[in-house]
């Protein structure tokens, strides 16, 4: 057993997804490609929504913010991973690690809450169409987004402050490609009971309650859609709801899978590989899921691209 502890270590070591040196160039190219696709795809969605006045609706307002959060979330973790692979230096400073935890928690919380807001938007649009413009007014949308931001920042700040009080064992190796809170807590030598209680409490509040709300809204949505007489109306409603449900399933399914596996087993490296799903793959897939089956988005893309072409 390694003895000794450090109240504020100088740095941690991020072991990444693999310690095999031959795999590092492949991992670098793969994650660089996924990061570029994520940033460009989500940026294209944001610009298309901004420049198409027909998409200035609550649904696309939330979608553009979801795309922005996806860019920020991946930018919190992937660039540092790429830098470590390129420089062959696995270290991350203590301050940098806590900063990464704080930003990652903030953006995960925001993504969680935006997905709930999008479900609420679809619930109002399908179940209360005549009152949609009154309920989902710009003021309410802005307030919901601001409240979500404040809650996410407060949650991340509390987690970070509680981590600051911990002392760490001299083994500072993290079997992950970024500083994830669960892995940092496992390295602590001091008592982490309060940290774990807070983690479980937040997971219950920001996990179970939002999922319950989303399930309730879609049960109501399906019930209302089945009452629509026209086949075209049913298809359009199910198409929009289906895209959102796919994103919700990817985000919550992989997120809870990683959380449960890290809590119940010691397969830390397996947990790190699984984390790629919700930290990289889900943000990368969101633009494709929301645009390929959406005629309005495809039309907005064509207008945006033609507008860019006209400048040349």
Q: What is the architecture at the second tier of CATH?
A: Up-down Bundle
Order of helices and strands: EEHHEHHHEEHHHHH
Question: Roughly how much helix do the residues carry, as a percent range?
Answer: over 70%
Tally the structural domains. 1
Helix count from the secondary structure assignment: 10
**Beta-strand percentage range:** under 5%
Backbone structural class: mainly alpha
Strands of the largest sheet, in order across it? Answer: 3-2-5
Gap between N and C termini: 66 Å
CATH first level: Mainly Alpha
Question: Could you please describe the fold and organization of this structure?
Answer:
The chain has about 300 residues and is mainly alpha-helical. It has one domain (about 10-300): Rhodopsin 7-helix transmembrane proteins (Rhopdopsin 7-helix transmembrane proteins), CATH 1.20.1070.10. About 75% of the residues lie in helices and about 5% in strands. It contains 10 helices and 5 strands. It has a 3-stranded mixed β-sheet. Strands 1-4 form a two-stranded antiparallel sheet. Helix 1 (about 25-50) packs across helix 10 (about 295-310). The longest helix is centred in the middle third of the chain and has 34 residues, at about 95-125. The termini are far apart. The mean pLDDT is about 85.
């Amino acid at each position: 057993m390694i003895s000794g502890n450090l109240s504020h270590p100088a740095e941690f070591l991020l072991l990444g997804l693999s310690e095999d040196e031959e795999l590092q160039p492949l991992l670098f190219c793969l994650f660089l490609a996924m990061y570029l696709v994520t940033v460009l795809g989500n940026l294209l969605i944001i610009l298309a929504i901004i420049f198409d006045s027909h998409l200035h609706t609550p649904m696309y307002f939330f979608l553009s913010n979801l795309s922005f959060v996806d860019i920020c979330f991946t930018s919190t973790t992937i660039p540092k991973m790429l830098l470590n692979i390129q420089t062959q230096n696995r270290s991350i400073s203590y301050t940098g690690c806590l900063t990464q935890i704080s930003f990652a928690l903030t953006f995960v919380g925001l993504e969680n809450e935006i997905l709930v807001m999008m479900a609420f938007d679809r619930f109002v649009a399908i179940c209360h169409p005549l009152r949609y413009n009154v309920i989902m007014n710009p003021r309410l949308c802005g307030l919901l987004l601001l409240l979500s931001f404040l809650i996410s920042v407060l949650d991340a700040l509390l987690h970070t402050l509680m981590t600051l009080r911990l002392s760490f064992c001299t083994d500072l190796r993290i079997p992950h490609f970024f500083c994830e809170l669960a892995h940092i807590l496992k390295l602590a030598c001091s008592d982490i009971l309060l940290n774990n209680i807070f983690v479980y409490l937040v997971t219950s509040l920001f996990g179970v309650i939002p999922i319950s709300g989303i399930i309730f809204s879609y049960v109501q949505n399906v019930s209302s859609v089945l009452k629509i007489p026209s086949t075209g109306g049913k298809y359009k409603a199910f198409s929009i709801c289906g895209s959102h449900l796919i994103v919700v399933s990817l985000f919550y399914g992989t997120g809870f899978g990683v959380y449960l596996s890290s809590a119940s087993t010691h397969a830390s490296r397996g947990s790190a590989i699984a984390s790629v799903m919700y930290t990289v793959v889900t943000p990368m897939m969101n633009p494709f899921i929301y645009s390929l089956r959406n005629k309005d988005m495809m039309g907005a893309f064509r207008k945006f691209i033609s507008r860019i072409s006209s400048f040349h």
